[in-house]
C-alpha cells in the first residue's frame, strides 16, 4: 500500500491529494452519521487509494474497469512465484512483462487491459479509486496527469 501510494505521489500528485481528501471526508461523514467504527477503521487503511481488489492465480480477460475515475491511475502490483507473466493493453497495442514485484500505472477505465494465465502462484493487488466514493465524499476531479519535459504535472 505504501509503495503504490508513494509512487502515485510522484506520478500524479493531484490524484494523491484527492485520495487523502476523500478518505478524510469519509471519516467526517461517518462521525456526522454516528458511525464511530468507520473513522477508527480508516486510520488503519494504509493507502491513498479507496479501493483494492486482490486477484489470485487467474487470468483476467481484456476489459475496462467502468467504476474507476477516468483521470486517475490504478496501480496493479504483483507478487508470487511464477514465470512468464504478461499484461496486455490491446487498445494501445502494448504488452508488458508482468513479473513478481511489478507495478504498472494506467487508467483502467480508459485502457483495455488483461493478464495472461501463468503456471505457479501469482497474486495481484490492484489499487484504484472508485468514482462513486469521490462523489459521495464530494471531492472534485483531480484532473489529467501529463508529462511536460521531464516533470509530470496535472492539467
List keywords for this structure.
single chain, 155 residues, alpha+beta, four-stranded antiparallel sheet, 9 strands, 27% helix, 28% strand
H/E series: HHHEEEEEEEHEE
Distance between the termini: 26 Å
Strand residue content? 25-35%
Please tell me the overall pLDDT. 89
As a percent range, the share of helical residues equals: 25-40%
Major sheet size, sense and barrel closure = 4 strands, antiparallel
Number of helices: 4
Characterize the overall form.
globular
**Could you give the order of strands across the largest sheet?**
2-6-4-5
Query: Which structural category do the helix and sheet elements fall into?
Result: alpha+beta
Radius of gyration: 16 Å
What is the total tally of β strands?
9
User: Spans with pLDDT under 50 lasting ≥5 residues?
Assistant: none
Topology:
Blueprint: H1 2-11, H2 13-32, H3 37-42, E1 51-56, E2 60-63, E3 75-81, E4 86-89, E5 94-97, E6 113-115, E7 121-128, H4 131-136, E8 145-148, E9 151-154
Antiparallel strand pairs: 1-7, 2-6, 3-7, 4-5, 4-6, 8-9
Helix pairs in contact: 1-2
Question: What's the short story on this structure?
Answer:
This protein is an alpha+beta fold. 27% of the residues lie in helices and 28% in strands. The longest helix is centred in the N-terminal third of the chain and has 20 residues, at 13-32.
